[in-house]
Amino acid sequence: MAGYPLAEGVLTDQVAAEPIRVGFGRGLLEAGRRDERVVALCADLTDSTQMSRFLDAFPDRFVEVGIAEQNLVTVAAGMARAGMIPFTSSYAAFSPGRNWEQIKTSACLNELPVKVVGSHAGLITGKDGATHQMLEDIALMRVLPGMVVVCPGDSIEAEKATVAIAANDAPSYLRLARDATPVFTTPDSPFELGRAYVLREGSDVTLAGTGALSYELLVCADLLAREGIEAEVIHMPTVKPLDEETLLASATRTGAVVTAEEAQVAGGFGGAVAELLSACQPSRLLRLGVEDRYGESGDPRELLEAFGLTGAGMAQRVRQFLSR
Amino acid sequence: MSRREPLPPGEIQAMAETLRASVMHMLAEARSGHSAGPLGMAEILASLYFGCMKHDPDDPAWEGRDVFMLSNGHTAPILYAALAHAGYFPVEELTSLRQFGSRLQGHPERVSLPGLESTSGPLGEGLSQAAGYAYVLKKLHRNPHRFVYVVMGDGELNEGNVWEAAMFAAKNGLGQLIGIVDRNYIQIDGATESVMPLGDLRAKWEAFGWHVLEVNGHSVTALLDAVQTAQAVVDRPTMILAHTIPGKGVDFMEYDFRWHGKPPSPAERDAWRSAQGLEPAGFDHVAAEKEQ
């Protein structure tokens, strides 16, 4: 291990699990305590996006806009213009899925610190099916100039990320998953916007993950190690700005990179890494994620298996990749 | 409160004519831009910036100011003309409209020009932004002394975002929010009532819980009266339906939807200016007036 404090029992059945969005709920409350300019806006999903804690603590600073995602982010922009730090939340399928242009014009071009929180993102949304499994959000938000894009790895990190984006002046996107996922970081684990973290050192291949799949990469690396393949695992909660230095340093050592995300690899995190490597450090690259298709209903675990995104599924793909 | 003394109605009307002349000149020089809306909105912008808004061109971020947001951003030339003549930036700069490197972008960019409160262009977002601002003033700052004005086009009311904002503003009783719809009955593809009928707009806004006023949008006194009435309504937002003539003041443009998104040629501008008894081109008359 590389000195990064991982949770106890991280590769055992004892690993704790909690929805990432729950960490956001705690983080928003903390951000609200630290700065009275923090306000929360929700589009009729207060409980499921975990804004209810903030509502209970700061009812005066909570705004319910109803089922109106375009208005959600444009009202937030107006509030930001009047000096507030607004967090908006809905399902990622609707925000940024439905209001991307409003985010571009009203928040980004206006240079306002609107924080777009997309809950229920990715395959981990599960049973609601393809319409509600937002797989394109990383691509949509990453392409906006000035936008910060954060995909926390677990609930503890989501809490820290929420506090961090509140204190940062930029428009930001925070991607959250619905179901419980393993908690692999600890309250003492470092988190800084724009920083990547080496969770495990290795010299044979670089495994770079974002969001909940960084945990699956730890599992993947453990399986590979049993076969004598030493993988370096890098957790990249900030997709934009990408920690290029950490990734390039690792890619230079290993010469082979694998990315993992539960989102479309085209334009997503895998796309970001591909852009970087092709420009700076041409390396063999395998992008794991969703490849030009939509999701479907199913249990989140079932879906990750079907898409080859569990630790075991990824280990198989990495093996093939390295043997070619 | 006001840092700028309001002009009497007669002078505001004269200012509206000056703004129109500037708009014609800017568009012809840019060889690009929208004509009909900006010309029709001259009295509205003149009434706001020279009649009823609290603002300070020497201190655009003055905390006591009222806020103006232009939602139909394609009508930017009339806003730029109003800001320049109010003193936010040199009038001569107006001819840089839509040029590379200009602070006068094709659609308003808040961060590029002093006095702009909002970035706009894509339709339907201004009312929401204004409502968000008014929400902070009313519910968080509890400051009843500042107003938020937003001008929208009528074609813009096709956008669903507008009606999302309409519900939000009414629900929250945003009395400090004063909207003005430039009701000129045209949009790019033709008459509003044929492209997408808006029907009884008064009834629609009232049904959404708004206080509604209807005025002749070319009457400065009617506009000033309407704003005064709106300011006195504190429990709900007001929408002023301002009936205007698209292309107002330019005989070959009036009522013709084909001028919605098209600029006059320099020759058309010069012909119009001489018919108005103005110099053929340039802002020489403005400079001369300033020196007096």
TrEMBL record, chain A:
Transketolase-like pyrimidine-binding domain: residues covered: 18-183
Cofactor(s) for this UniProt protein: thiamine diphosphate
Signal peptide: none
UniProt entry tagged with the keyword Ubl conjugation: no
Domain of life per record: Bacteria
UniProt keyword terms in alphabetical order: Thiamine pyrophosphate
GO MF annotations in UniProt: magnesium ion binding
InterPro entries to which the protein is assigned, alphabetical: PDH/Transketolase (IPR051157), THDP-binding (IPR029061), Transketo_C/PFOR_II (IPR009014), Transketolase-like_Pyr-bd (IPR005475), Transketolase_C (IPR033248)
UniProt similarity note: Belongs to the transketolase family.
Name the record gives this protein: Transketolase family protein
Species this protein is from: Raineyella fluvialis
